[in-house]
């Protein structure tokens, strides 16, 4: 699957929430997420623009653990990339397996996330610990073919929400490492 995603730094969630409400966006859920990123022994993910992480999700609906691989970004404007995910049962044993294979854990990223839906778009408001507040808008496609149309629609939706700058391609991990 291809995740077409654009992230922007925002300061005022209240204003964004009011505009989301005016566009009939539906608040879906709130979660706490902790991500443990890994770097590979055979290539440097900071150079290849890939990512491998274990995400621990805590919400009122329960807990979930997901192992995710993200391929290199497909363009210079967005965070659009291939994404492969699988649910796992045990963070510590999965982490141990990866470490035994030579993968090195990197600094964890923690965030509080609120999800909204507008049609086929997922909008998140993220408070990333030690980094700041961000909004992400994404759409998941089954193939890469027409992602540019979706990207144009995402930027249009940002415009409707009053966000015209502050766009960010770097990952939360990269931003966290810069702030340290």
Plain-language structure description:
There is one protein chain. By secondary structure, the protein is α+β, with helices and mostly antiparallel strands. The protein has one domain (2-179): Beta Barrel (Hypothetical Protein Pfu-838710-001). It has 5 helices and 10 strands; from the N terminus they run βαβαβββαββββαβα. The protein has helices at 13-22, 45-48, 91-100, 147-160, 172-179; strands at residues 2-9, 26-39, 51-59, 62-70, 81-87, 104-105, 109-118, 121-128, 132-141, 167-168. Strands 1-5-4-3-2-7-8-9 form an 8-stranded antiparallel beta barrel, surrounded by 4 helices. The longest helix is centred in the C-terminal third of the chain and has 14 residues, at 147-160. The mean pLDDT is 93.
Topology of helices and strands:
Blueprint: E1 2-9, H1 13-22, E2 26-39, H2 45-48, E3 51-59, E4 62-70, E5 81-87, H3 91-100, E6 104-105, E7 109-118, E8 121-128, E9 132-141, H4 147-160, E10 167-168, H5 172-179
Antiparallel strand pairs: 1-5, 1-9, 1-10, 2-3, 2-6, 2-7, 3-4, 4-5, 7-8, 8-9
At a glance:
By secondary structure, the protein is α+β, with helices and mostly antiparallel strands.
């Amino acid at each position: 699957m291809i995740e077409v995603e654009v992230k922007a730094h925002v300061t005022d969630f209240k204003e964004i929430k009011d505009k989301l409400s005016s566009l009939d966006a539906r608040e879906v859920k709130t979660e706490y997420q902790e991500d443990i990123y890994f770097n590979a022994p055979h290539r440097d993910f900071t150079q290849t623009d890939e990512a491998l992480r274990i995400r621990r999700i805590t919400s009122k609906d329960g807990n979930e653990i997901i192992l995710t691989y993200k391929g290199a970004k497909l363009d210079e404007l967005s965070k659009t990339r291939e994404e492969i995910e699988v649910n796992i049962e045990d963070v510590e044993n999965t982490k141990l397996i990866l470490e035994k294979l030579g993968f090195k854990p990197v600094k964890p990223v923690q965030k509080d996330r609120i999800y909204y839906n507008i049609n086929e778009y997922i909008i998140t408001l993220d408070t990333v610990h030690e980094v700041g507040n961000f909004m992400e808008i994404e759409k998941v496609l089954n193939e890469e073919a027409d992602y540019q149309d979706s990207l144009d629609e995402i930027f249009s939706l940002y415009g409707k929400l009053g966000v015209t700058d502050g766009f960010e391609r770097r990952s939360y991990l990269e931003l966290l490492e810069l702030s340290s």
